[in-house]
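User: Can you model how uridine-5'-diphosphate sits in this protein?
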Amino acid sequence: MVARFLLDHLPPALLLVKTMAMDAKPPFARKRILVTGGAGFIGSHLCERLLADGALVISADNYLTGRKENVAHLIGNPYFEVLRHDITFPLYVEVDWIFNLGCPASPIHYQNDPVQTTKTSVHGSINMLGLAKRTKARIFQASTSEVYGDPELHPQNEDYRGSVNPIGPRACYDEGKRCAETLFFDYHRQHRVDIRVARIFNTYGPRMLPNDGRVVSNFIVQALTGEPITIHGDGSQTRSFCYVDDLVDGALRFMRSDAAGPGPLNLGNPEPTTIRALAELILEMTASRSPLAFGERPVDDPGRRQPDIGRAMRTLGWAPKVPLRQGLERTIAYFDEALRGGGKRKTLAPLIARGA
Ligand code: UDP
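Assistant: Here's the modeled complex, given as structure tokens:
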């Protein structure tokens, strides 16, 4: 009320200020933003949100695990531009901000071509940091909870240095992302590049690939198609699952804020669940009769993972809002639709078994 009264009684000389204050511009009005991995699972949600907030968005993706379908609905928007580009090669564009998300993130995909995975993290970071240096762009790095390896500390805070096997099958991703963090902080110290390094914990939601190989998508697809639910080990290992909208919200707050500095900053949902409990919840929500099938634990599979998000809460006022059941409802609905479209499922999922 007071603010409105003051604005209404401003002298004419301050009319411009008044107009600007009254014209609630979207937060990223006309900011030029590059998203590498823009056609990927998280990248496509981020592009969507940035466009809604007024940005000019360039998606760069080599479509290794990204899909054009993820951004098809954005094509035609004059503020959205799509490039087929592999970040292991330099890219010359003029931008204000860069989100570097380009990298396969699921163990089965990143282990498929491990040399390329390391190159994507290392050469990709060098190329994107070079671009940030030239354009003076602020740059966000999608780092990962995998930098903590198979942690001995629970929950994991940003000061924990991790327990990573440098020669195991996960090392191409873990060590690649660790080296990327080194590069980000060296470009920051040596060249004063304005960085934001986020460590992203297990994230899920619509637009994960049905054959992504990660646990949430695997279990949902298996439950919807009546296939056995493939639990690695006895399912007592834990993960903390963050819904993609919460993650995107945290990433944007981090980029807009100076309070959290360059990071590193954990972004994830601190609520842990066992893999077996996740399987049972998905079975219940899909009213599926899929049996549980217990198999081998993969080499170096972390036993527990849970973010300490105290720093993000203190500096950004951020915490995830979407409870697991609610996020799973949306994700199950997405896969149900996608599987029916692909002819793998003929009937509507009995969504959501209870309470939807
Ligand atoms: N997992 C499982 N069945 C699957 C896929 C994964 O039991 O079909 C387990 C996996 O061994 C790990 C956890 O679920 O303990 C999370 O795996 P995911 O690949 O989703 O992510 P990450 O290991 O990178 O956290």
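A couple of observations from the model: Residues 1-8, 12-23, 346-356 have pLDDT under 50 and may be disordered. The two ends are 40 Å apart (CA to CA).
User: Helpful, thanks.
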